[in-house]
Amino acid sequence: MIGSVLIGLFLLALLAGMPLATGLGVASIAVLAMAGFDQLAVPTNIYAGIAKYPLLAIPMFILAGMIFERSGVAIRLVRFVTAIVGEWTGSLAVVAVLVSMLLGGISGSGPADAAAVAAVMLPSMIARGYPKGFSAGLIAASGSTAIVIPPSVAFIVYSVMVPAATVPALFAAGLFPGIVAALCLLVPAIVISRKYGFGRDYKAARPPLGKSFIEAIWGLLAPVIILGGLRTGIFTPTEAAVVAVAYGIFVGMVVYRSISFRGLFRVLVEAGELSAVVLMIIGIASVFAWAGNTLGIFDAAAKALVGLHSSEWLMLLSINLLLLAAGMFLDAISIFLILLPLLVPIAVAMGWDLVWFGVMMTINLAIGQFTPPMAISLMITSRIAGIGMEETFKWVIWLVLAMGAGLTLMIVFPQLALWLPGKLGYL
């Protein structure tokens, strides 16, 4: 009964148009009051939810992503990748996917990655005959891989909620599946471009490889420094986020001189505002999770779901459909905070590796970032392209299927995710 009240109040709050954090808070406070708990449990759990050392990395990676976005790294990476790929029918579509994958190794955020690539790539793609809907959809899809390719803000939140899965293990586990997911997007990108002749009639000089490489080297070094420092133990994941910020400021203000002191101040303000929103959701969702766990709601629901499905594959299918549906409306971090208290007991009961399970969830939620109707990354790229989201629908469906194929590969072959962390000694 009380579990139905918790979930029902939360859903009603969302349907009423309340912000996510408010809906979580209203439902949690009401249920705790019904159960006779002292309301001091609310501020105590909000503080406990955000007073965790690994969460310090979230505002830092958000800031690092914004700094690299404003520093001009994206345009230099585009020139370098274009010099490698060359100019042919559909080449810019390939460049968009590959640049998004490279930037994903810096920002850790799908929307930030999509915004940075869209600002640089959309004008040139449209000028060469690529439809706005196709271009916006492709960039949103490829940008979503940023939450799978390390460093990933989503993995940090997952690690905080599932201590058995460490951040280094998740970062290592996400590398190959993230690359596979991005490469799967190349198939529809190339096939569609060649079918409709996107870019066929446009001839442009190929950027010189050597010069473009020298210009892009500072951006290419960023993921090497971050992941290399983590692997060698020079710094922790939280410290890596600080190193990324310092490196980004150095590149933007000293090397490229594209960020002024005034510009840096604006970036700090914007990153602070976005970080405050994320951490507020995390803090209030901690109350929601604590209420559900303390009252035994999530454990009872998990046992009921396990009892419904005797087949492991049916359970996996049900969970992935649930995540895909949730990903259409909410961002990855919010879904982790809401659903992990329910799904982790199921994963444990099924005997699934929690690192593999975290990667599977994250890829699924990456798909949700560009699957209508809400699709936060698609919303951003459509706005930059100056079109309605409906113009992307006929193209996005093929991209959803392509990344779904990448997710299926990771589910069928778990070693895609588990081989590297096992090799590195993280498992």
Automatic annotation (TrEMBL):
<feature type="transmembrane region" description="Helical">
    <location>
        <begin position="313"/>
        <end position="342"/>
    </location>
</feature>
<feature type="transmembrane region" description="Helical">
    <location>
        <begin position="45"/>
        <end position="68"/>
    </location>
</feature>
<dbReference type="GO" id="GO:0005886">
    <property type="term" value="C:plasma membrane"/>
</dbReference>
<dbReference type="InterPro" id="IPR004681">
    <property type="entry name" value="TRAP_DctM"/>
</dbReference>
<comment type="similarity">
    <text>Belongs to the TRAP transporter large permease family.</text>
</comment>
<keyword id="KW-0813">Transport</keyword>
<feature type="domain" description="TRAP C4-dicarboxylate transport system permease DctM subunit">
    <location>
        <begin position="8"/>
        <end position="416"/>
    </location>
</feature>
<feature type="transmembrane region" description="Helical">
    <location>
        <begin position="112"/>
        <end position="130"/>
    </location>
</feature>
<keyword id="KW-0997">Cell inner membrane</keyword>
<dbReference type="InterPro" id="IPR010656">
    <property type="entry name" value="DctM"/>
</dbReference>
<comment type="subunit">
    <text>The complex comprises the extracytoplasmic solute receptor protein and the two transmembrane proteins.</text>
</comment>
<comment type="function">
    <text>Part of the tripartite ATP-independent periplasmic (TRAP) transport system.</text>
</comment>
<feature type="transmembrane region" description="Helical">
    <location>
        <begin position="170"/>
        <end position="192"/>
    </location>
</feature>
<keyword id="KW-1133">Transmembrane helix</keyword>
<dbReference type="GO" id="GO:0022857">
    <property type="term" value="F:transmembrane transporter activity"/>
</dbReference>
<keyword id="KW-0812">Transmembrane</keyword>
<feature type="transmembrane region" description="Helical">
    <location>
        <begin position="137"/>
        <end position="158"/>
    </location>
</feature>
<feature type="transmembrane region" description="Helical">
    <location>
        <begin position="240"/>
        <end position="259"/>
    </location>
</feature>
<feature type="transmembrane region" description="Helical">
    <location>
        <begin position="271"/>
        <end position="293"/>
    </location>
</feature>
<feature type="transmembrane region" description="Helical">
    <location>
        <begin position="395"/>
        <end position="420"/>
    </location>
</feature>
<keyword id="KW-1003">Cell membrane</keyword>
<feature type="transmembrane region" description="Helical">
    <location>
        <begin position="213"/>
        <end position="234"/>
    </location>
</feature>
<feature type="transmembrane region" description="Helical">
    <location>
        <begin position="80"/>
        <end position="106"/>
    </location>
</feature>
<protein>
    <recommendedName>
        <fullName>TRAP transporter large permease protein</fullName>
    </recommendedName>
</protein>
<dbReference type="Pfam" id="PF06808">
    <property type="entry name" value="DctM"/>
</dbReference>
<keyword id="KW-0472">Membrane</keyword>
